[in-house]
């Protein structure tokens, strides 16, 4: 690997103490966002019961967080490349804190919807902020490893969103949970303001780094015209959706309707899924530096996901242990997104990282929202076989993504596969 990044700026030869602090606060903020993204299966049913939300509206409640986040990804990339995470992130996270308070006091469908929109928008910037910071504070060939460490560290938020949250709600209710999360988020945001710096000392900005927002907008066209980028985005569209659809909403109702599990029992199975997330992250991150082909890593993971969803959809009367094993494997395999993000990061120079990876993140989040609705459609089409139809539908989407992904770029000039 060259000592120069693709932008021409010298790659960091050592990692400073501040870089590790930046990593930690990025992981905390991303972890809180993960808590909200994955807590829907635990929080939405009791919220709907208390507030009086009809079951046919639950899919929209679950999906609006992801659609709001996806809608903001392109402006997020523009703002991050122009103004930097240090100025952009506090503004967004402040909106998420407001969303927590709106939810804690919510007594109507509209208030719950607004809260979910604020949470989706507020935390829409945390992953991309981390990626932009990592691109400038860490050597380029360590990007996937650092990203995997962040996913693993932030998984505490995912873990808390499953069984611990279900247990807390069972005994203390869901409103106090949002007050507590708001307080933790506020502290993390204040610490981030003091810790985060956009670039290390001596970092050389590329001459193409946008100096105005208009220049950032004009440069976005270069990202969209990048050779075979749209083929690559096809895989991004199904990267987050499969596992997050189960954890974020439909895993709980499925286990309740098909297996008759109560809230705590459902939370225990979802807890196993979120435990698999950091294990998967720590597996796929180093794998990126060991194997010569990023595309082969992603292909292998997605083919196994197809098998898992096809089994869930086609095999009747699966025992609960088998369903649990398939759910856990899907959560583990979803962490191939780390390799996909590294593929995207390596293909673009530093001054495009925010816009390129935010585009990837946008289609990934849209995929989550789309799959949330897919489950709802399956249940609407066939109340008796709706879950099976939805599982099969996701398997078919994964197959389609693989076909397009064959024609995508390698994401690394030194890797031609």
Q: How would you describe this protein?
A:
It contains 19 helices and no strands. Helix 4 crosses helix 5, helix 7 packs antiparallel against helix 18 and helix 14 packs parallel to helix 16. It is mainly α and 417 residues long. The N terminus and C terminus are likely disordered. The chain is globular, with a radius of gyration of 20 Å. It has a single domain, classed as Growth Hormone, Chain: A.
Distance between the termini: 17 Å
CATH class, please?
Mainly Alpha
Question: Which class do the helix and strand fractions yield?
Answer: mainly alpha
The second-level CATH architecture is: Up-down Bundle
Overall tally of structural domains? 1
Mean pLDDT: 83
Shape: globular
Order of helices and strands: HHHHHHHHHHHHHHHHHHH
Which percent band covers the strand fraction? under 5%
Name the CATH homologous superfamily: MFS general substrate transporter like domains
Number of DSSP helices? 19
DSSP, total strands:
0
DSSP helix fraction: over 70%
Which helices and strands, and how do they pair?
Elements (H helix, E strand, L loop, with lengths): L16 H22 L1 H12 L6 H14 L1 H11 L1 H20 L4 H14 L3 H12 L5 H18 L2 H10 L1 H22 L17 H12 L4 H8 L4 H19 L3 H28 L3 H21 L5 H14 L3 H11 L5 H29 L4 H20 L12
């Amino acid at each position: 690997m060259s000592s120069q990044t693709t932008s021409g700026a010298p790659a960091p030869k050592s990692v400073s103490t501040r870089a590790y602090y930046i990593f930690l606060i990025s992981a905390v903020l991303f972890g809180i966002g993960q808590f909200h993204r994955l807590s829907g299966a635990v929080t939405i049913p009791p919220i709907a019961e208390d507030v009086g939300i009809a079951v046919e509206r639950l899919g929209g409640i679950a999906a609006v967080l992801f659609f709001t986040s996806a809608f903001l990804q392109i402006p997020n990339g523009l703002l991050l490349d122009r103004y930097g995470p240090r100025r952009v992130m506090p503004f967004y996270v402040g909106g998420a804190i407001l969303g927590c308070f709106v939810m804690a006091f919510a007594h109507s469908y509209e208030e719950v919807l607004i809260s979910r929109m604020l949470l989706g928008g507020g935390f829409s910037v945390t992953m991309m902020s981390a990626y932009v910071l990592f691109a400038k504070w860490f050597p380029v060939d360590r990007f996937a490893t650092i990203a995997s460490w962040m996913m693993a560290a932030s998984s505490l938020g995912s873990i808390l969103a499953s069984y611990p949250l279900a247990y807390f709600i069972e005994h203390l209710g869901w409103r106090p949970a949002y007050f507590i999360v708001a307080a933790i988020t506020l502290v993390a945001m204040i610490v981030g303001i003091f810790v985060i710096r956009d670039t290390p000392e001596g970092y050389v900005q590329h001459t193409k780094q946008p100096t105005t927002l208009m220049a950032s907008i004009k440069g976005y066209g270069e990202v969209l015209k990048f050779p075979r980028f749209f083929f690559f985005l096809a895989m991004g569209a199904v990267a987050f959706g499969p596992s997050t659809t189960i954890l974020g909403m439909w895993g709980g109702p499925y286990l309740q309707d098909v297996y008759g599990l109560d809230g705590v029992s459902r939370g225990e199975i979802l807890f196993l899924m979120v435990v698999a997330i950091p294990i998967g992250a720590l597996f796929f991150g180093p794998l990126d530096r060991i194997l010569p082909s990023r595309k082969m890593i992603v292909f292998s993971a997605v083919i196994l996901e197809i098998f898992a969803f096809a089994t869930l959809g086609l095999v009747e009367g699966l025992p609960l242990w088998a369903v649990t094993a398939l759910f856990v494997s899907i959560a583990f395999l979803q962490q191939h997104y780390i390799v996909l993000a590294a593929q995207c990061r390596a293909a673009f120079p530093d001054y495009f990282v925010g816009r390129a990876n935010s585009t990837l993140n946008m289609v990934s989040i849209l995929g989550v929202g789309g799959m949330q609705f897919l489950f709802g459609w399956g249940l609407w089409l066939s109340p008796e076989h709706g879950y099976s139809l939805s599982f099969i539908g996701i398997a078919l989407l994964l197959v389609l993504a693989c076909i397009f992904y064959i024609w995508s770029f390698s994401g690394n000039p030194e890797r031609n596969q």
